[in-house]
Amino acid sequence: MKKTVFLIPFLLISALSIAQNKPFKTDPAILKDFMDKRFGMFIHWGPVSLRGTEIGWSRGHQVPTVEYDNLYKEFNPVLFNADKWVKTAKAAGMKYITITSKHHDGFCLWPSAYTDYNIKYSPFKRDIVGELATACKNNGIAFCIYFTILDWHDTDYPLHNLGDSIPDPKADMNRFVKKIKNELSELITKYHPYMLWFDGNWEKPWTKEFGQEVYDHIKLLDKKIIVNNRLGKGSHKTISPLTVGDYATPEQEVGEINMKDPWESCITICNQWSWKPNDKMKTAQQSIQTLASTSGGNGNLLFNVGPMMDGRMEDRQIKLLDTIGRWLNKYGESIYGTKGGPYKPNKEWAATRKGSKIYIHLFKQDINSVNLPVISGVKINSVHFLSGENLVFDQTDKIHIKLPAILPDKNDTVLVIEINTIAEGLPLVMN
Ligand code: H79
Predict the structure, then answer these.
(1) CATH 2.60.40.1180 spans which residues of the chain?
(2) 414 lines ligand 1 (CB under 6 A)
(3) CA distances from 233 to 105, 237, 254, 342 (A)
(4) I want to staple 370 with a disulfide (CB 3.0 to 4.6 A). Which of 84, 93, 147, 401 is the partner?
(5) Which of 41, 45, 48, 57 to mutate to test the pocket of ligand 1 (most atoms within 8 A of CB)?
(6) What is the pTM of this model?
(7) How much helix, strand and coil, in percent to the nearest 5, is found in the chain?
(8) What is the tens place of the pLDDT at every residue in 124-157?
(9) 339-425 maps to which CATH number?
């Protein structure tokens, strides 16, 4: 009896403080920590790796629906080793990992109590999301969860295929929203993700109001969780009154420079999100320059890998990731914890800045000088390659830096311009 008497005022106070905190906003310091990381690994995986076709979209297209929906009965990736994946990401210089807990095909890589269409009922049985969460924790890398809203497999969700437009009369969105809230509670309380990456919000049955309801639900469970901008509606590329979530998510392209809203480009290492045999892979040069371009636009890069059906990542992809990591070992100070600008990135170079330094990432080999607009009120003290050597420069009507015939790095040579003020505060220069 006494306990209840004490409990009631406590509950009232908590309820009141929660109500006062609405609308929930993610602490800017948390978002800054996220943006300082600059580089993460996206992982798209599921039973579809048995066919090597695209996750979600190939259901009912390249793979007949019934066949696709039964693939999990053969999914047994015995060589899956979460620690190895995490070590591959760390060797690449990545600071966070985001895994598809559920893609548009509805299959759950964790043993959910809310659907039987999950990993527990595959021959593999093991909790893939849980093992990866633990490995991330053990290796000091942030663990993040991708969770799509649209679920073509779920009978409560009105649409059941890519391009489906006739809503299933048996579906029930209120029941569906309740179910995904339960699934999210499970994911949050069991695995404590640093961030939730939503997707599949563009189909008609989903509304901004549902998105807001889910956002508040997440924040009540853990107000520190970062949420991408795909919970509401509107373009993924921006934060707008239509979107719900903390940061923008341009897909398969480098985002536009934005000094106000946080953003992260998600880009695949090959063409397909999930594993495809002999898929065309990007080169180390393309990958490193993409990373420098996202940093130069003040954004992050979430670089996607699709592991194979046996649980391993492809050797050639591991090698490529390692090359990026070796580049970052040398040049990481020009990426991590920097801001983009003050020049806008272009095809030939990108700029980042930190403290009194402006870093210029050079993408071309066949140049003998760099020409940049002067920044009013800014004086250059010195210019050197990040790898050492001092360079001759001139700063009269423009900044002119003379380069040697051979540049130190064929993927991305980094120049450091030391200036007489704090570079981070400078407004963008129109170039
Ligand atoms: O999870 C990854 C994708 O599977 C997911 N978002 C990223 C992070 C995504 N789902 N849908 N889409 C992206 C857009 C789909 C576009 C498509 Fe198509 C139109 C798929 C099929 C028709 C583009 C055009 C790809 C094939 C043809």
Answers:
(1) 339-425
(2) no
(3) 21, 11, 21, 31
(4) 401
(5) 57
(6) 0.95
(7) 30, 20, 45
(8) 999 999 999 999 999 999 999 999 999 999 999 9
(9) 2.60.40.1180
